[in-house]
Amino acid sequence: MKFKPSIKPYRGAAGGWGSLEATTRYVFDSKQPLKNLRNLLRVNKARGFDCPGCAWGDDNHSTFSFCENGAKAVSWEATRNAVEPAFFAAHSVSKLLQQSDYFLEYQGRLTHPMRYDAVSDRYHPISWPAAFALIAQHIHQMDNPSQIELYTSGRTSNEASYVYQLFGRMLGTSNFPDCSNMCHEASGIGLKQSIGVGKGTIRMQDFEQADAIFVFGQNPGTNHPRMLHSLKQAVSRGARIVSFNTLRERGLERFTDPQNPLQMLTPTSSPISSAYFQPNLGGDLAAVRGIVKALLETHRQRLAEGQAGLFDRVFIEQHCIGVEEYLAQVDASAWSHITQQSGLSESQLRQAAAIYQSAKRVICTWAMGITQHKHSVATVREITNLQLLFGQLGKPGAGLCPVRGHSNVQGNRTMGIDEKAPKALLDSLAQRFGFTPCREAGHNTVEALEAMLRGEVKVLLALGGNLAAAAPDTKRTAQALRNCELTVHISTKLNRSHLITGKEALILPALGRTELDLQASGPQFITVEDSFSMVHASEGIGKPLSENQRSETAIVCGIADAVLGSETLDWLALADDYSLIRDHIQATLPGFDNFNQRCEQPGGFYLGNAAAELRFATPSGKAQFSAAALPETLRAHPTAELAPFTLQTLRSHDQYNTTIYGLDDRYRGVYGQREVLFIHPQDLAELGLQEGELVEIETLWHDGVVRKVSGFKLVSYAIPRGNLAAYYPETNPLVPLTSFGDGTGTPTSKSIPVTIRRCASAPAWRIA
Ligand SMILES: Nc1nc2c(c(=O)[nH]1)N[C@H]1C(S)=C(S)[C@@H](COP(=O)(O)OP(=O)(O)OC[C@H]3O[C@@H](n4cnc5c(=O)[nH]c(N)nc54)[C@H](O)[C@@H]3O)O[C@H]1N2
Ligand SMILES: Nc1nc2c(c(=O)[nH]1)N[C@H]1C(S)=C(S)[C@@H](COP(=O)(O)OP(=O)(O)OC[C@H]3O[C@@H](n4cnc5c(=O)[nH]c(N)nc54)[C@H](O)[C@@H]3O)O[C@H]1N2
Ligand SMILES: [Mo]
């Protein structure tokens, strides 16, 4: 790995030899290259394990289906480096806290259950039964079930998620904060309101038939690299890709397929986007409004000339309600408001409208650039409005596609990891397991942290993830964790959440996706669901690093057994044989008939999507246009109006959320460093600052709390004026816990009102 910091604009296409070189480097760095090459050949195959990277679907056409960043994820997990009891004996928790996130995870895999001892400020080994007993003791001491929070991160399997939520509900709580609350919540909520189902309506093969694909607020070159194959193939068929992204992202511009030998040997690359628009942060609602305004104008013109209109009248009449109110709202949105808020000119929006109009089948995809704002639900619904006007649902090659993050985050929700679970799920759990589940809504992630801050939470259980680093307002989040009596993390690698402990703390080492999971009844597989509602089996092959690691499912069952006892359910039998869990899933959730048998199907099975079949589970039974007015301001609070800049926090090419694989961000030309701040060159000039100078970034918020990070190096970049970008999680101290999306509770990580000023030194980012 290169560590000498440098900035060198990247001139190549995304993918290509750079990608192959990086893949090889990570495979070798894992210290077991052969095993990992064998591992990679088994990723996303009919028999093999699901890539622990992103939630993109599997393309059964190619010989192997993994990407550079999937290779990083696999090699990172399947490392021979181990964090053993001797490591913890040698390092106090306060010392480890001084280290970077990169250092912590790089130490390797956790191998033993460990218990924190406040006196020596160290973790010491503990046996599994003693760890379970400690958890049971704390839970039994709670005054009521709302004093526990059960956090989940989206890599967790369906089987582990299902038993986890069942355990929590039997305890009597609905407190299931999860990573999704910080991620695609707005997609789930917005789509549910508009079309009755909170999931995407398309399948992978729809990319083969689309005439146009509109990509909003997403960086697939880094975060969903296998999507570039689908985009490239679409382009070569003549489909048009239209990108809306605040930054110029190389993966949306040009791509060389590292799995295409011909393209690798010739100096060619495929252009991706036919048109590239750079809206202001949060400006997409206005941008889509502008596109519709232009289309509405043409529609009316056509009607006035006695021709057929542009919109799909039959579809709208048969399947939708609320179109008049919506179009009235479009009329009420002035071009001046639209252009000022979107940051795009009328002619740019008319150009996008013209491409949309010329396509019969359109797919709209989106990710965090849409969902981590104050007006995210309205924006998701506005994209849906556009698609409804043209009847782009229920036909091949068209539809709505929120591209999920974690590889099984969609499956977690399907399994009932949901602080506002649907009534049908609670009814069927009550019936099958004979208990009375809590019917009140539980806490989402922000609400859980607030409750912890108020001292109302005794126990935090975390099934994967890294809450301390992933959550906003780093200092307050740290205080929230410290307020707990007991914090428990089921994890594969050491991370910051293990070091910011409750009064007591446990680390429970879990097996990863790539590893053989041997239980009493034999080797087990688990199942996951991708962004396209395909459920499939995943079976690890690697020998676990330590006999003391346990599967997530076995750990959750062990906890449930210790806390609730075997009278409630034979939890340990479920851990012995996961097919019994799948029987329970089949009996309590729709779409899982013959679950165990259907897992054998190569490529898995499709859960179905009612909206894609034009059945809308909304109160009216129809797709519901949303008629939101354009907000007066994009700022989350009036006091923030004074902020000269809006900052987005995003991922570099060498990270998986809080897991930092390396310090390069190749496509953006950043090497050997992460504390950089992307800024427009004219903004630099106006501030009298130079590229390479260090600045401090401070949030303008109304609660009197100082939120600052310093030592960020200015990098001149193609970004709209007044907008800034920097990497997460280093910038999480800047995101106020009280700044979240309307109706979602999702921290507004893509629109933080900030000011910047020159600073002298570069104190590294640390959580005290
Ligand atoms: N390798 C790798 N893969 C991953 C992850 C990872 O960290 N590493 N994370 C996984 C997870 S959990 C998720 S949720 C996804 C995240 O996938 P992305 O959503 O692609 O992730 P971000 O890096 O947050 O990038 C947001 C993109 O939206 C743009 N953007 C930001 N704000 C706006 C806006 O207001 N409007 C528009 N039009 N564009 C905007 C940014 O410039 C950036 O290109 O990826 C998943 N896959
Ligand atoms: N400022 C800002 N904040 C953000 C975001 C942003 O864009 N900006 N993005 C948000 C988003 S989209 C998300 S999804 C969240 C992510 O939040 P989380 O899901 O909580 O965080 P991760 O970094 O994915 O979790 C990494 C840890 O998971 C553990 N782990 C990895 N694999 C496994 C496994 O197989 N089993 C178990 N048990 N543990 C495992 C490892 O110990 C590792 O350290 O962050 C959110 N926070
Ligand atoms: Mo995510």
Automatic annotation (TrEMBL):
Known cofactor(s): [4Fe-4S] cluster; Mo-bis(molybdopterin guanine dinucleotide)
Keyword Iron-sulfur attached: yes
Alphabetic keyword roster: 4Fe-4S, Iron, Iron-sulfur, Metal-binding, Molybdenum, Oxidoreductase
UniProt cross-references to InterPro entries, sorted A to Z: Asp_de-COase-like_dom_sf, MopB_CT_YdeP, MoPterin_dinucl-bd_dom, Mopterin_OxRdtase, Mopterin_OxRdtse_a_bac, Prok_molybdopt-oxidoreductase, YdeP_MopB
Chain ranges of the Molybdopterin dinucleotide-binding domain: 645-751
RNA-binding keyword on record: no
Domain Molybdopterin oxidoreductase stretches: 109-492
One GO term describing the cellular component: oxidoreductase complex
Gene Ontology BP terms: cellular respiration
One of the record's GO molecular function terms: 4 iron, 4 sulfur cluster binding
Family assignment from sequence similarity: Belongs to the prokaryotic molybdopterin-containing oxidoreductase family.
Protein name stated in the entry: CbbBc protein
Upper lineage: Bacteria, Pseudomonadati, Pseudomonadota, Gammaproteobacteria, Enterobacterales
